[in-house]
Amino acid sequence: xxxxxxxxxxxxxxxVSAHATVTTPAPLAPGAPCPxxxxxxxxECCGALHAGRxxxxxxxxxxxxxxxxxxxxxxxxLLRTWAPGTRPPAVDFDPRLRWTGxxxxxxxxxxxxxxxxxxxxxxxxxIGGERGVQREDSRFVRVQGxxxxxxxxx
Length: 154
Ligand SMILES: [Zn+2]
Prior knowledge:
The chain is of the alpha+beta class.
């Protein structure tokens, strides 16, 4: 059972649930399969992006790494890959929620030849024994060579 911290209730902001902030990423071994669904070990895939050893070359790759950051509860990575204009003050994770898979449904632009792009995805999760899916068309921009998440179109 999760212990409640002594922090005051987290601020709610658009699209971010207001549950207790988890400051420590959930442990995931570098050799574990990457949560993003690519056939690679976490340490060689999104783990390298989370650790700052490499940068996402495409909007889709950034989307995958952000999904993995939700899965391992890496708030710092989510915040630094969020466009300043839409970035929330904090990212709070629901400790009951477990992300179980990601499907990339479609992309537009978002390559090294573009400065913006969209990624449509379905993110699967489980909460309290119930399965759910979050579908979103996300907008991304590339600023000084780095892809950043902007917001959801739908
Ligand atoms: Zn990955």
